[in-house]
Amino acid sequence: MNLPERIFFTGIPGCGWSVMAQTIERIEGFNTSDRTSDRFFSHTSGARHMGAYFGQGMEFGLDLNPDNIDRPWTDLGGTRIIKSHDWALHLDEIKQKYPNDWIVLVYRAELISMERWLGAGGFNIKYPNYSDYQNEDIMLKHMRRCNKAMLDFSSDYQVKWSHFTNDWLQETFGQKLSNFNREDSDILITVIK
């Protein structure tokens, strides 16, 4: 299967999207040269952040020019997953500027996502930095706005939402992974190619 140069990956905080991105990066052909010790966070809840994050108040901003998008990687070969909660609000622009790249959307309801995010550290998460969201009320409003934007965009493309399973990986990326045993009934994922 021919993979794109980039996959723009988005979901709201606490939806489980980071673990999904890390799982996908185990597939042959993915580039993880954006991972450094400064770009790592792990919590006792099992939440982990690895590699570069883009967005409001994050290490890398929302500038969609390649100079910004490609900057965190020390090697530009392979497929790079470009992660941001805020891509949800820029999906039309991404599709227009990068028509050959893919977009992955991860959906989980806001209240359970907020609970999971707070349980993983919330505003005390060391990487990436969430301080620009200021408080839980502002974060919840942002989550609602992002989820609505993803649902509206996916409706325009009439995509199929699925659970994150090994069968979905096979269908989407042409590979299954060993030691993969994850299915969250309240999380949905889709890809726009």
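That was protein one. Protein two is written in the same sequence-then-structure order:
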Amino acid sequence: MSRFDEELEEQLGQLVRDVAWGVYEPAPLTEVILADHGGRVLHIPAVRDRVVERAVLDAVTPFVDPVLGSTSYAYRPGLGVEDAVLEVAKLRDEGHRWVLRTDIDDCFPSIPVDLARRQLGALVDDSELLAVVDLLLARP
């Protein structure tokens, strides 16, 4: 098996054809346990699947981003930690005195995937794109 970048143009061309022809099959996720993070488990996609995931993200972001909450800063184009800090400072300057910082332990496995997928389908009217999303969600 060759590394993806060793034959980049050929790999990308084949990936585009596979997706376009409806024969794309994502590889199983690779499980990695981070011992220095309390045994945190990561499930890592193959490089070719990350390329597809990025393309899907780029395609759905214009539909999804407008419906996200105004105080949601994570994983949003053009927004980040600095923006969140500036918003907190603005609220402080407006007289607000309390800040609640939260983090959901083991967040991603707790997401109701079926509900999230239905909501995505309500926002994105592209059956071929949603079929690729379904393949990615169904990976072992």
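The two ends are 20 Å apart (CA to CA). Keep this in mind for the problem set.
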